Request: fold
Amino acid sequence: MKKSVLASILGLSLGLASLNAMAFYDTVSLTYDNQPLVIQEVSGRVLGDEKATQAVLVDDILAGQGKKAVPGYRVMFMSRTASVLVESKKNKEGQFADDRMIHRGVKAAFGIPVVDGKMDFNNVKVLNVALISDLNREFKEEDKIRPRGEQLIKKDAKIKNVQLKVTELKMPQPKETSGGGITYQLSFDVDGKKVVSEGNSTFRDWNIAPAAMGDRLFKVDERVIKAQK
Reply:
């Protein structure tokens, strides 16, 4: 991985189609098989250096899965509805920590090509997608806590017609854990059912992923690459 640190100004205006288009809202929607799923927030992350202090440029956003190497940045957004159970799960140190439960949502890791030092949003490539739904999870009023959603994109799932359009993207400053925002349109088919997600939202949560987690968080799914026009 070639580490080319983002200039500080990019932390303020990364990938914006226009420097005047800085306002983001908290609007986001998701439908699965024409059924709406209520979404609360949009969060995100970017692949960074070893210490997760700065975003970095990689030699090939497609990790060898394309016809040629495409240098750029790897970013992810998560549009989701979640709840937190306070101090209900032990962490690696054996201490009780919060347990975040994802009920429904969509996630997309994507690569942004860099051409002549500029972000090329016309050729964004989706690396992988995930979809969680609780439509089939039983919930009774007396339960109080909704059950976790089910991951619908399994290893044998058939993915087609992947399309992603990012028109605005603003990353928070390196030490910030929220802010910035994204405007996007994402659609794809999974096992013959249509998924559509749109958002114009600030990032509720934001983090820089350490380089060591790149192969897992931004792993290239061959099905997704082949399903893009």
In short: Residues 187 and 196 are 4 Å apart (CA to CA). The two ends are 27 Å apart (CA to CA).
